[in-house]
Structures are given as C-alpha cells and as structure tokens.
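Quick one:
INPUT:
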C-alpha cells in the first residue's frame, strides 16, 4: 500500500525521486493473511540478519482465548538452503523443528486479546542459525527470500483448544505456504520503502528512507547507509533486513544525532561494479559505475527535504564500505564525515592525491583483524596508515574478531558465539564502536560532525 500523503514526486525524467511509505496498516484487512492463505509471519532484524519470530494463524472457527496453550502446538520449518557442504549450485530444501515459546489468542494484526477470535499467534525460537528466511548463494553473492518457505503447524494429542461453542479442536487445517509479500515487519514501519531514482546516466537506484519529526524550519543531518554485496537488487526489505538498519531509526541513535534523516540506497547489483559488464569482485580500486547516480540521488534528497547540507554523513559495510570510500574520494567536499566498515576499496588503487583530498575529512574506520573476506592488509589497514600521517580527524575501531556481545548466544563450551570476522558491522549497529586511542563513541562522534 502507498501512503499518498507522503508520496514523493512521480516523474519519469532523470534526477527525480519517486516512491513513498509502505504503510504498516491499521488493522483487519491489512493484517489478516491474504486470501487463500492461513498464515502471516512476523519478521524482525537481528545482528545476523532477519528471523521469522512468529506466525499468526487464521482458524476456520472462532476460539476461546483462554484455551490457547503453547504446548499444544508443533511447528516444522521447511525452506530453501544453500548446500555449504557440497558447495553445489543447486540448492537444498531442509526441514527443522521450530520451538513454540508462547501461544496466545490475538487480533488479525497479532495483538494479544482475551476476546473470542479466529487468530492465534505462535512465538517461535530463533537465533543465528534458526528461522532465517533468506537464502544466501555463494556463487551469486546475493540474498534472496527462501523458495520454498513453509511452516507446518499441527496440534498435539488432546489439545485444550476450544471453539466459542465449546467444541474441542482436535486438528488444524493450516496451509504451510508462506507469502513474504504479506509478512509483518514491525521494525520497518517508519521507513518509506518504495523509493526509485533515475540518474542522468540512466542508472536506476532503489532506496528506502526515514524522515524524523522536526520543528518547523529546523534542518537535520542526513545519515546514509550503503549495504553490502548480499543486499543488492530491487527489494528494499532485503537491504533493510540484511543489516540491522532499524537501529538507525531507533531512539538511541536518533538521540545521538539529535534527529536525523536516514537514506538507504540499493544498488541493482553490486556497488563495486566498475564496468558495464558487471565485474566487481576483482575491482582493483577504481570508481563504481553507480558513482554519478548515487551522488545525484543524495543531492535530490537534500533538495527535497530539510536536510542540513553541512551534516551529510556517509557509511556502509563491505561493498558499501567500498562505496563509502569511493564517494568521499570522488566528492571530498560533499560530506561532513564518513564511517566505512570492513571496507573493500583496495588501498593499491588509492592515489596520494586522492588521500590529500580527504586529509581534513573526519573518517572512522571499523574492521575485525580476522576478516578473511576483505583482508585488512590489502584494504583498510594500509589506507589507515597512510591517512594517519596527514589526517588529524582519523578514528578507528579495530576488533580482534566478531562475537556475540548480548550474552544470548554461546558456543558449546559457553564462550560467546563466534561470527564470521567480516561481519564487524555488528559492533556499529549495537553502538559498541569506540576509538582505539581516544575512547570516543562512534554514534556520539557522528552527532558532532559538521562541515
């Protein structure tokens, strides 16, 4: 659905922003499962990406709210998965149980109710390896929605579930097929997700964005987030859920910035593409084919909204870290600060003249030393060393590895769960980046940057 009040200008010529808010929906017709389907899932974003945290089931008959018990339900997940053991191009279909943590009568939107209803919400277990609706393909370097993705829901023997007429329900007829188009995304409700932009060079970018509540006449900084390789394409939900971007519109981050616009562009393919044939993985350190279009999108956004043009902050991870460096090297006077994370711009491709251009630009690098995807020795480490000699505004957060800091996920021996060393953006989204020398906090630092 489109919220027409907050539509952007719909014009086909290059340089125009189009799109609008994907409305979260106010209730019954929006929240209930689509015709022909009996389930609607809830997806939330976490450090590692998205997880299906609940399913809302529509029953044929209204039931008594107090007859719903978690122990009466069994859920089995069936989904597409990349075969990492065989490293095969053909994907597997795998099945695994999902533990039901809680169950309760609810409205069609999933809100708990004590009234008779046709809807039941099942809260499901999830984790770094459980409940993920994305299928990452090693050969395409892309995340896609799992196809198939199914949740088979059944009742245990002698369940307590009872209709409003007092009849026990012995079995369920629940279609296991899930429609991701109908999924509830509670963390993304304040994002406008249908943005489209056509650059003067013909390159088209999708984008999502957030607008803060501002006093009349007040301008706010613009925070730009550039996604990694797996989140390119034409579905903003993948870009927003692949990393925990919802943190940028959360109270803690917004308070640190004093209220900020958030712009999350999405490349059709990969930010690191350097020719019209789409080559990117062997980028030797040269400009992206999306450079001009992204610059024009940023300017169009600044022109449309009450953005403080002296407080444009740009950052991203991996492919997006590359694009962050690419943009500041190409347009050093546009940005107030940059925060590249595990950035993939090869140091050997950066000239001394380019570094001179950003000698006064505040830059905060974040990476983990055990990153094997983008080895620091070839990318950020030598660039940081060269910048230290000329840039007094350089900051770094260098971690030994990437591990769980929430205390929720552990290895079998009880130590914190270990993630791929490339995933250092976790620390940024959890506000755990401090400068290795000064002890400054990155979010607070971003809030102070001004040209």
């Amino acid at each position: 659905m489109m919220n027409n009040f907050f539509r952007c200008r719909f014009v086909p010529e290059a340089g125009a922003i189009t799109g609008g808010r994907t409305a979260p929906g106010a209730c019954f017709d929006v929240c209930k499962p689509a015709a022909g389907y009996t389930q609607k899932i809830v997806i939330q974003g976490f450090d590692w990406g998205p997880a299906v945290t609940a399913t809302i089931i529509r029953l044929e008959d209204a039931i008594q709210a107090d007859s719903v018990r978690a122990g009466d339900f069994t859920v089995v997940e069936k989904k597409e998965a990349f075969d990492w053991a065989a490293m095969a191009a053909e994907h597997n279909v795998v099945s695994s149980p999902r533990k039901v943590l809680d169950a309760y009568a609810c409205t069609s939107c999933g809100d708990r109710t004590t009234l008779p209803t046709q809807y039941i919400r099942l809260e499901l277990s999830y984790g770094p390896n459980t409940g993920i609706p994305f299928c990452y393909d090693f050969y395409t370097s892309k995340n896609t929605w799992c196809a198939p993705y199914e949740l088979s829901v059944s009742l245990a023997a002698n369940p307590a579930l009872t209709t409003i007429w007092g009849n026990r329900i012995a079995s369920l007829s629940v279609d296991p097929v899930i429609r991701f188009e109908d999924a509830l995304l509670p963390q993304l409700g304040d994002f406008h997700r249908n943005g489209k932009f056509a650059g003067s060079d013909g390159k088209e970018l999708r984008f999502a964005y957030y607008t803060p509540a501002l006093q009349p006449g007040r301008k706010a900084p613009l925070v730009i987030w550039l996604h990694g390789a797996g989140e390119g394409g034409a579905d903003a939900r993948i870009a927003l859920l692949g990393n925990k971007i919802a943190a940028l519109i959360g109270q803690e981050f917004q308070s640190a910035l004093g209220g900020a616009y958030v712009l999350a562009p999405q490349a059709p393919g990969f930010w690191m593409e350097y020719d019209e044939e789409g080559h990117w993985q062997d980028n030797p350190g040269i400009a992206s084919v999306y450079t001009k279009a992204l610059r024009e999108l940023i300017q169009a956004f600044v022109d449309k909204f009450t953005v403080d043009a002296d407080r444009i902050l740009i950052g991203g991870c991996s492919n997006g870290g590359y694009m962050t460096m690419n943009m500041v090297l190409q347009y050093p006077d546009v940005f107030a600060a940059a925060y590249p994370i595990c950035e993939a711009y090869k140091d050997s491709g950066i000239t001394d003249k380019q570094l001179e251009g950003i000698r006064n630009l505040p830059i905060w690098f974040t990476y983990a030393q055990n990153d094997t995807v983008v080895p620091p020795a070839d990318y950020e480490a030598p660039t940081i060393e060269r910048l230290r000699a000329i840039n007094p505004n350089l900051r770094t957060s260098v971690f030994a590895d990437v591990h769980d800091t929430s205390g929720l996920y552990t290895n079998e021996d009880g130590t914190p769960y270990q993630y791929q060393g490339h995933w250092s953006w976790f620390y940024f989204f959890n506000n755990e980046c401090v400068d290795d020398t000064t002890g400054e906090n990155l979010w607070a630092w971003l809030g102070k940057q001004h040209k």
